[in-house]
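ok so i was messing around last nite and threw this chain in just to see what happens. nothing serious, just curious
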Amino acid sequence: MRSALVRLHRWFGIGTALFLFVAGLTGALIAWDHELDAALNPSFFDARTNAAPLPSLELARRVESGDPRLQVTYLPLAAEKGHTLQMMVMARVDPKTNQPYPLDFNQIAVDPATGEIQGRREWGALSVARINLLPFIYKLHYTLFLPFTHGVDIGTWLMGIVGIVWIFDSVIALVLAFPSAKAWKKSFAFRVRRGGYALTFDLHRSGGVWIWGLLLIVAVTSVSMNLSTPVVQPIVKLFSTLTPTPFTDPSMLPNAKPNDEPLPREQILKAAKQARIEKHIDAPPGAIYYAPAFHVYGVGYFGASDDHGDGGLGNAWTYWNAQTGRSLGAQIPGQGTAGDLFMQAQFPLHSGRILGIGGRILVSFVGVMVAVLSATGLLIWLKKTNARRHATITRDAKSRAVRTQTESATSQ
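result:
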């Protein structure tokens, strides 16, 4: 049984090592994506003027009237002090060609006091230019920039499958790390003074044992991040009901045509503020987004610097029919069925934000360790492969020598 588990661990590890090495290092970085992005691109993040900010709705109106080709799809309702207001945009349809206007950007940074656009970029572009570096790393983390093929997001599926293999391999690795009850202490030790292969082996085995629980959490949540709808939610529904949203239940989607104009943001926000009172949501509306493919508005509730929802299960969201303004449900942290709570916890756990700054530090450490475990696993495999190859060569040489001696003796 153990020999079979060893082979499984070996091949699971070889098959996923490169992917997990990339995911580990990129994950360690994107735990601090906002801070690193701001440090690299101050002109995109720091507002040029310090005057009192205009209302976000007015800023969005100025942006759209200044460039009729674009439509603001994600609008923060307040900017951090001294920072730009960063909006996501998409191209409108050109009535002459019935095709989207050509745009080479999907995110803009706006001075909140003047409405001036300070910077533009294509978030998630395949580019390592300074302005694109952090979004590039973020997207690399979960897609590897692999393409859509026949409507399938190959990268997202691949990394999700890697996560599933990682879950099984984590269980196998824990079993293999404790070969006997008497030798359990060795599974926690690091032979630092010996160095070399001994230390490499201990980094792989003992390093994994010390943080095994954290590794399993990251593995499970990575599957939830990439394969929530096709894999995780159907499994969760076997044990608990899930409250439907417009993004999980197509029957809730508005009956609208692709080019139908949505209701004004002001109307949706008025309803969202009333919903805040009715649902006892503490935070104010922090952002509004429009999903054209679904013809749905979403309103998030958070402060200007808390869009990721540091601490707890994240931020509250309400959803609205963009055609009629009718409520399409809500996701309130800490409320709902057991399945709802499980799904709410996935991103906060995966990002470490469930524990605030401390959790993000922990996730960065785990990300580095995932890369270390992947690298040391490959080194161990290479050393054992070379040792087996050398043993085979030596054995074959001895066999040839014996045959030569035998043939020589026989010929005499």
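not much to say yet. The CA atoms of residues 66 and 287 lie 21 Å apart.
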